[in-house]
Design goal:
heterodimer, A: alpha/beta, Rossmann fold, nine-stranded mixed beta sheet, 13 strands, 29% helix, B: alpha/beta, five-stranded parallel beta sheet, 28% helix, binds flavin-adenine dinucleotide, binds adenosine monophosphate
């Protein structure tokens, strides 16, 4: 019997949007609409790849992806189906805007419980929008499962998960038994694969399981009460220095000028 | 009680001394006390040392757990924080802080916040500032539950100076935690040369290097300058550099005199790791790359052309 792996994915404002284009909306509490498109977050892509590799190796029997978001996030769920996740769940939180990590984690932990039979939860180390770096860890606490963080690769070996992770000064290999939560960090080996054309087409027709927070036993008041904090305002930091360009076509000359300037500025 | 938490050791690390600064500011404004909590193999030494920073009270939990798992540390930090009646727990946003902060908050029934870069008290409310959207914005946040378990980004606060004084240390018995999580193998990262975080010169490469060979050039330059090599996330994902070299929001925070960014576009998440650099030297073939917005010196050129010449120029200068 293989593992049932649940991957927590999040669609985020494209993290590559240049700082110069970033703007805050009229509420002062969130980015302005329309400054960039949304993408499946980078660490969630790594997390998904870790789960898919377990499936390739025959260690996972089923990979489910879950997101707590509005209907627009169906797009990212379909991307996950296109790389052959087996099941996609949207917990539709429209109407409960701006969930904080404590609220999100409660919703996701309940979704994992409702899915049933999940052995391994895989989250990204941090979502590339608000950069909280909390949800995976809070889901682990809420489920009461141990958590191995900053994982790059997972293998199953006779019922024991062997996890390669980023340790304090280099890589570590950790052994753990399910049920378990892992958070994932980037590495050359967990770059998300590309979908095959026929899987892309098929993903358009696959069903998406839709739940509401109420289906998970959370009404609006209960959900609001879970919030751990509140954003008062956003502001845009100043950070520009005057760049002195060293021009010229001859690399030797440019290099010599660069070194001279570094010495004059007492930087070398 | 404002509690500074850490793993112990003979010295308070720079990051720990930065936490002292945060704690003092809060204690002054809130009229509370500062305590120190150490959980680890040399907990008592650090707890005594805390006295030299004007901290009167400390709890030391000597934890010698062989599993390498984080759960025993978290559970013992929770024990200590409870014992001290913490209303705020401060951790460095380092390898331990990243894993332990939110989980500690959950165990204590508090609220978590990561990567604080500023804090102030207004009308008795503590307002934390943290970068969001990869550093493209700063958010002012209030936390609802107590304790506030906050990880603090390194370099955001001055490190407190050591003075004199003694802390009253309570030594507590560690609670044993069996998690069935075990570290079975450890691989040292690279290291010739200085550590990235401490290097006076850092030479970093990005996707623009186009392959692993570019990193050999960078290593040559770094060695000549007594510096360390860094990388962008994109270069790590390409497999040209190990993850330990990653500089940025989810990599190392560096603070060299000179930071060479070679073939790096300057995404905000990368810049988050180099705000402590005195000067950035950008080498990029695209004059519109955002890296030039934070650079002191810039060269618009293909790095393949410039680097060999730069290495020669540095050799000449040093000869
Ligand atoms: C939550 C989150 C955390 C992140 N954390 C980090 C982090 O810690 N560190 C990090 O680096 N990134 C991080 N990122 C990723 C970041 O958003 C960027 O994707 C990444 O920094 C881009 O790397 P790059 O500059 O090497 O690549 P690119 O953006 O592709 O830039 C390559 C540059 O090379 C230049 N170039 C190309 N060829 C040459 C040549 N021959 N000579 C000279 N120049 C050339 C190009 O003009 C371009 O500017 C994070 C993202 C998220 C969402
Ligand atoms: N709304 C969400 N839906 C599903 N997963 C999420 C959501 N928010 C966060 N996560 C997961 O938790 C990780 C950490 O998120 P965060 O704490 O927001 O930085 C992300 O990388 C995701 O794997």
């Amino acid at each position: 019997m293989g593992l049932h792996v649940a991957v927590l994915i999040k669609q985020v404002l494209d993290p590559e949007v240049p700082a110069a284009r970033f703007q805050i909306d009229a509420s002062g509490k969130r980015p302005a609409a329309g400054i960039a498109g949304e993408v499946l977050g980078p660490y969630e892509r790594n997390a998904l790849e870790v789960a898919l590799q377990l499936k390739d190796a025959g260690a996972a029997e089923k990979v489910s992806v879950i997101t707590a978001d509005g209907q627009e996030a169906v797009e990212s769920l379909r991307k996950a189906l296109a790389v052959r996740a087996d099941q996609a769940v949207l917990v539709d939180t429209s109407g409960h805007d701006d969930l904080d990590p404590a609220q999100t984690a409660e919703i996701l932990a309940r979704a994992v419980e409702k899915l049933g039979g999940v052995d391994l939860v895989v989250a990204g180390r941090q979502a590339g929008d608000w950069d909280h770096g909390q949800v995976g860890y809070l889901v682990a606490e809420r489920l009461g499962w141990p958590c191995v963080s900053l994982v790059q690769r997972a293998e199953l070996d006779g019922g024991v998960l062997r996890l390669t992770r980023q340790g304090p000064d280099g890589r570590e290999v950790v052994e753990a038994r399910p049920p378990l939560v892992v958070t994932v960090t980037n590495d050359e080996r967990n770059v998300l694969r590309l979908p095959r054309v026929q899987d892309l087409m098929a993903s358009r027709r696959q069903p998406i399981t839709q739940w509401s927070p109420a289906d998970l036993g959370l009404d609006a008041a209960a959900l609001a009460d879970l919030a751990g904090g509140e954003v008062l305002r956003l502001r845009i930091p100043e950070r520009e220095s005057q760049c002195e360009f060293i021009s010229g076509d001859d690399p030797a000359e440019v290099a010599a000028t660069l070194v001279r300037r570094l010495k004059e500025l007492k930087l070398l | 009680m404002i509690v500074i938490a850490g793993r112990g050791g003979q010295e308070l690390s720079r990051a720990q001394r930065e936490l002292v600064t945060v704690a003092r500011r809060l204690a002054g404004d809130l009229g509370s006390q500062v305590a120190y909590l150490a959980v680890g193999p040399e907990a008592e030494a650090a707890a005594r040392r805390a006295g030299a920073f004007g901290i009167g009270r400390a709890v030391a939990i000597e934890l010698n757990d062989a599993s390498g798992a984080v759960e025993p540390i978290i559970e013992n930090l929770a024990q200590g924080a409870r014992r001290l009646g913490a209303s705020v727990v401060l951790l460095a946003a380092d390898h331990l802080g990243v894993q332990a902060g939110p989980r500690l908050a959950a165990r204590l029934g508090g609220s978590a916040l990561n990567d604080a870069v500023d804090v102030r008290v207004e009308d008795g409310r503590v307002i934390w500032t943290r970068p969001v959207f990869g550093g493209k914005a700063l958010a002012d946040v209030v936390l609802r539950r107590s304790p506030a378990v906050v990880t603090v980004r390194s370099g955001a606060f001055e490190a407190a100076e050591e003075g004199a004084g003694e802390a009253a240390v309570d030594v507590l018995e560690a609670v044993a935690v069996d998690t069935a999580v075990r570290v079975v193998q450890r691989e040292e990262g690279r290291q010739e040369g200085p550590r990235l975080e401490e290097a006076r010169v850092v030479v970093s490469g990005g996707r623009g290097l186009g392959g692993p060979e570019g990193f050999q050039r960078l290593a040559e330059l770094a060695e000549l300058l007594g510096g360390a090599v860094g990388a962008s996330l994109a270069a790590v994902d390409e497999g040209w550099a190990p993850p330990e070299w990653q500089v940025g929001q989810t990599g190392k925070m560096v603070a060299p005199d000179v930071y060479f960014a070679v073939g790096i576009s300057g995404a905000s998440q990368h810049l988050a790791g180099i705000s402590g650099a005195k000067a950035v030297v950008a080498i990029n073939k695209n004059p519109d790359a955002p890296i030039f917005k934070v650079a002191r010196l810039g060269v618009v050129m293909e790095y393949e052309k410039l680097l060999p010449a730069l290495i020669e120029a540095v050799k000449r200068e040093l000869a």
